[in-house]
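Posted in: Structural Biology > Protein-Ligand Complexes

Title: Requesting predicted complex, 2-acetamido-2-deoxy-beta-D-glucopyranose in pocket

I'd be grateful if someone could produce the 3D structure tokens for the following input. Sequence and ligand are given below.
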Amino acid sequence: MESITSNLIKLLLLLLLYFLPCFHAKSPPTSTLPLPTKSGYLPVNPTTNSAMFYTFYDAQNPISPLTQTPLVIWLQGGPGCSSMIGNFLELGPWRLNCDKHLQLEPNLGAWNRIFGLLFLDNPIGTGFSIASSPKEIPTDQYSVAKHLFFAIRSFIELDPLFKSRSIYITGESYAGKYVPAIGYYILKKNAQLSESQGVNLRGVAIGNGLTDPVRQVATHAASAYFSGLINGKQKTQLEKAQLEAVKLIKEGNWSEATNARNRVLNMLQDMTGLATLYDLTRKVPYEFELVGEFLSSEGVKKALGANVSIAWEDCSDVVGEALHEDVMKSVKFMVELLVKKSKVLLYQGQFDLRDGVVSTEAWLKTMKWEGIDKFQAAERKVWKVKGELAGYVQKWGNLSHVVVSGAGHLVPADQSVNSQIMIEDWVLERGLFANEQEANPSSSSTGNGFYV
Ligand SMILES: *[C@@H]1O[C@H](CO)[C@@H](O)[C@H](O)[C@H]1NC(C)=O
Ligand SMILES: *[C@@H]1O[C@H](CO)[C@@H](O)[C@H](O)[C@H]1NC(C)=O
Ligand SMILES: *[C@@H]1O[C@H](CO)[C@@H](O)[C@H](O)[C@H]1NC(C)=O
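-- Reply #1 --
Done. Output follows.
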């Protein structure tokens, strides 16, 4: 049944691609196109028709029985940006590019190589997700987490084989709020539920995240100045604007604080003239419009099980507006609980000027956690892949921090294979993520021999 459905979907997608303006005459062989194992809608509560759109790709080459193969969940940021950006531009099994024509290419760095990978359009109102009324769109992280919890549990119930699989929640940018929020909610809920009803959360990973805005917003001036992008006078101007944002946060004037942060970023954009603050080395911005073009096709929507009457947008203004007052609220305290009860990975592409390395270090070192001094004292190790510098890894206990070389805000888009190695080794506790206590020469080598 399932394979018939998936073959049909495969056929449909191939046919449809043929008619897209960017279609490349030479299509990849059908057998290499991993379509979603499952996709469609998950309910977010028992009483309304609101629903979260998902695409799920099970592991391509699992190294364990499926019942023990980890599930990785991906949440895009925004607020209000669709996880289909992550799916089709970053870590999914196919990536879009437009080399004269729009085409899908197998992604060698896909995060579903050995894990199941679930993309959720979160919160409702985002991407293909459905909000039955605008009032139901979350305005705070508690409501975001409540919907996510319901959706994730509904997903697990779709297949008896999902129940026993460990779950890792990952995401990028504004998901630096969502990921801790759902992780924290799961820990609280699990404490009230029997083991069989809970969610088998083992870790959370945040890429270039906004998590503790009050400290992060204060780092842009220094970060840009020491990168040589602004001069001393501009640094002073930017610092003044940053202080205004901090002041508004301290006053609890949340909406104005969000506006003040936007002013800081706009100033930085004007001063530097960069193509994008997401990556100071880029000559052109990331190509979100490729995903828009692909998902505007009615046939593609049908094949993916999305509601065809929804016009997909990369980021929803309605959702962005709903969460406007939430933007500057910190969820650092949630990470502080998560690091005691599960693993936490914070990773950043080195070239990001919005939520980059300096911005993360600023709040990381203020974490209230018994291991923080040991983490701060831990060696920052040079990470190499096939002899080339891939970045830096610092780890102590449940906390890992990775700086990814040659990447901006969308790490898996820029360094797909290295990002895959990072997530796999972190989940499986291999290579530089092996536990100190257990590390010995034979157990610390990675399965693929990529670490040197
Ligand atoms: C928020 O800040 C703005 C700008 O400083 C000010 O006009 C407004 O009165 C403040 N609102 C509240 C509720 O303090
Ligand atoms: C599809 O989306 C439209 C517009 O949001 C909505 O009115 C309709 O109820 C949805 N259809 C289904 C089957 O959910
Ligand atoms: C690390 O997380 C595990 C659960 O994965 C937990 O049992 C342990 O207590 C945590 N360690 C510390 C030092 O907080």
